[in-house]
Specification:
homodimer, 519 residues, alpha/beta, Rossmann fold, GMP Synthetase, Chain A, domain 3, 9-stranded mixed sheet, 5-stranded parallel sheet, 15 helices, 26% strand, globular
Chain lengths: 519, 519
């Protein structure tokens, strides 16, 4: 598997089709097929030898997307950097992956001096913007116009294609090393899931530095689809892009769907071209799912569960399993069944494989696992064991192979000797009509060790009390699982770039000067 | 990629679903998941060590299907033998692949003495039938009942999984060696093509010894679908099986579709459960395609083109490209675009890659090519060059990447210095209402070198003359391409097991004691 063959397939299949739409700029696949080997030649002149690393710090753009292919074409490995990170964190990543070339757009020019100081291995800077090329940098477009196409480097199979950095907000960044084979086969698994591979138009709103934002770069390209690129998620531009370009496929997180459905201009846009909406990052509350199915009747939802280390994909809850009544209604609370090519098992702390219904750690095996964490053989050996990736997530499988993710192990609350998975409490809260957002955390309690605590944002116009929410939960879940206290907020809860509630931010103030036993 | 993980995925995804339907016998995936590791243990006791070969000579059955997984589970390689071959040809294959165990059903017991004499390396015989186990053989069901499950051998990736023999009717058989990785990834490519991977029920009518018959064993199992197994193609049992079991997927060749549509009982069966009908082996005449689309409106047709050496799959003409008017109508005459994961190029005799529109040899590259021909490094080196599989087929690509297979190179007719591709002439003939079957061959001509000659079966009740057919062609194609002579037959044309017209049988009588320049 040569990663660059993915681009070749798009050019062969759909040369006259639109490859990228970015602002006012559109390019055909035939053009992208011409530009990439020239950009690669330009990178090569900047000293990229086989196996060297090129980093990118940029908002999503068509040029950024081309680099996913130009860098391996030139023989290099690709490190997209996190746009939310500080210069200090990004400098760490640049040193960690030994990057010798850094590509930046206008949004990150201010970080450049710090990055140059702290990552002196970076010898060349490529400018991805449209303005005047800053001193000391070379324009990406000049790489293309000044160089003839080079032959593909031929890197493939186990060669390193990309390094995705994770964990920056809660610890030292780790570089997840993905091979040509892993990214190629992971993409085939995504395509197997999709109901059609014809005329796909994918709208990006997640950053390419995160796997959930980047995965479609590969699988949409294989089938010669169109990449519609927005720099970030904002409801109006997203709705405009869907209706203007006839977008067919997207990846969202549930909080974004809420923002679309509740937006005052929601009804002004025709969003009916969209067919496949993949969501993940956090479970979908049932009430929201029902509202979405009603207001967006043509959208088919697919939940996916995975992590960067598993190519972002391991299980899928297919559209037909999004049902709210009947004998299979419980499946809506799962994250579905293993994707084609993936095996999932639940493992006890002593390493035993557990039968259906038993809670343990979720482990996944496929041909698209990471090669390992870059330069971190100890941490790699901790999670990659016997060909399985150990997720750190707790969960169980039902009799039909549906995976229920209990919650992050570290997010489990131990109260009065009982384990409470916050997700179960959150699901109960979301069934209350006044609850717009909810996060459940453990806070210190002299009586219980930890106490179940809920942080809630109420829907505008409602004013349910803490006691009414606790009573509501008591009807649905065991007493020891119900919140002991409820805290109301006016602003949206803090979320990560992929839309997960940042529970550490909610939890940390309670735990100052105390040690939690878990996590 | 471990081949046995394919079975594991079916068991995990659909343990309570029906795995196999064979005659009156049905088994669930959970059962098959229990049986295979026991059968593997039984094979191991028969002396199968890692890398040893087990051959099967049998009509399709549920037991045969289990062997696709039990043999690699035991560490072995699998050689399914051609049910049309003589004992002499099969003995050659047994020696060639060094088989030490042979599994046979009742249909082939009579070949056993000859095979034992001519392939003395076969040390153990397994009986796949339901009758009394013949002396000197061990019953397959006893392998299962007498042995506890063994651990999976763990064979994977480049390890040999299966050897498919080709070419027996026209030359010495060649064993096409397929690795675990090739069969695994080829299957992912099939799944990417399918519009859905849910609740698939596949009806087999092609023998498992041929890749077109076996390919679904792998990809239907990955998604936990149901295998409905018939021993061979006969219109009534096929129509009965579709309506009884709600079959959703099939592979047919065009001659079989003709036989279904023209069968007097066609209208008695409800065939509307079928969604995806893959056809291949030979192009579909336009008139037949139109008739099928009218009489079977729920069936979606996918043409595939490939060869055993490319995992049976390389390009696909999707349903949406089966159109008969408008600017893309020409595509119906192609075999579609490269499948996901496949690159196709057209190569001139001097090795140059040719641009769209230019005729040359079709070469294919993917991660699911054969490892090579078993024990035939010279023949392997002839066709597998620089990572590409050279097909021996002539064809061209259009501007949108659609592949037009001109015909087998050896089937090209050189007449008066002009090259005529018989398929083009056949297509013209098929547009005549009286033509039921047609094959065009080159016969010796003192004037032209070769002359274009048509062999035609007329529809019942019609009696078009040779001259009227020639005149009809003259309206459609260049004069030098039109048949110089037409021969009418009453019986169906001779076809290979996969439904291709055996042109050598038609051609050879004309060429006795003469050498053709081509082929």
């Amino acid at each position: 598997m040569r990663g660059t063959s993915i681009l070749g397939q798009a050019v062969a299949r759909n040369p006259r089709g639109i490859a990228t739409i970015c602002g006012d700029r559109q390019r055909l696949w035939a053009e992208v097929g011409e530009r990439v080997p020239r950009a690669a030649a330009g990178l090569r002149k900047l000293g990229i030898a086989d196996g060297a690393t090129v980093a990118v710090l940029s908002m999503n753009s068509d040029r950024y997307l081309e680099l996913f292919f130009a860098i391996p074409w030139a023989g290099g490995a690709f490190a997209p950097l996190n746009v939310r990170w500080s210069a200090k964190e990004n400098a760490f990543a640049l040193r960690d992956c030994n990057a010798t070339v850094l590509c930046v757009d206008d949004a990150f020019l201010t970080q450049v001096p710090d990055l140059q100081r702290d990552a002196p291995g970076v010898g060349a800077l490529v400018y991805l913007g449209d303005g005047k090329t800053p001193d000391g940098m070379i324009a990406y477009e000049d790489l293309i116009s000044d160089n003839a196409a080079m032959e593909d480097s031929g890197r493939c199979d186990d060669d390193l294609w990309a390094i995705f950095y994770t964990g920056g907000t809660t610890g030292m960044p780790k570089g997840v090393a993905m091979s040509h084979r892993a990214l190629g086969y992971g993409s085939m698994s995504y395509l197997a899931m999709l109901p059609t591979i014809e005329d796909l138009k994918f709208l990006y709103i997640g950053g390419y530095f995160h796997f959930s934002g980047a995965s479609a770069v590969f699988y949409i390209t294989i089938v010669g689809g169109t990449h519609v690129i927005l720099p970030k998620f904002e409801p109006v531009p997203v709705m405009e892009a869907i209706s203007t370009h006839g977008v067919t496929n997207m990846v969202l997180v549930p909080t974004m769907i809420t923002m679309l459905l509740n937006h005052p201009d929601f009804t002004r846009y025709d969003l009916s071209s969209l067919r496949t909406c993949i969501y993940g990052g956090s479970p979908m509350p049932e009430a929201l799912m029902e509202q979405a199915a009603k207001l967006l009747p043509k959208w088919e939802f697919y939940q996916i569960y995975g992590m960067t280390e598993t190519c972002g994909f391991a299980t899928m809850l297919r559209w037909r399993d999004h049902v709210f009544s009947g004998p299979t209604a419980s499946r809506i609370r799962s994250c579905g069944q293993p994707a084609p090519g993936v095996e999932v098992q639940i493992v006890s702390p002593d390493g035993t494989t557990l039968p259906p219904g038993k809670l343990g750690e979720i482990a996944m095996r496929s041909d698209y696992l990471m090669s390992g964490y870059l330069n971190r053989s100890d941490e790699t050996a901790e999670v990659l064991r016997g060909g399985w990736m150990y997720s750190g997530d707790a969960g169980y499988l039902d009799e039909d192979g549906f995976l229920f993710v209990a919650d992050r192990v570290k997010d489990m609350i131990v109260t009065g000797g009982e384990n409470v998975f916050s997700i179960e409490v959150e699901r109960a809260l979301f069934q209350h009509p006044a609850v717009l957002e909810a996060a459940v955390i453990g806070i210190p309690s002299d009586e219980w060790g930890e106490a179940v605590h809920a942080v809630v944002v109420r829907r505008p116009g409602t004013n349910a009390t803490a006691q009414s929410l606790i009573d509501h939960c008591r009807d649905l879940i065991a007493g020891y699982k119900c919140p002991k206290s409820v805290e109301f907020r006016e602003d949206p809860l803090p979320v990560t770039p992929v839309g997960k509630v940042r529970k550490n931010v909610l939890r940390d103030p309670y735990w100052e000067n105390r040690a939690r036993k878990i996590g």
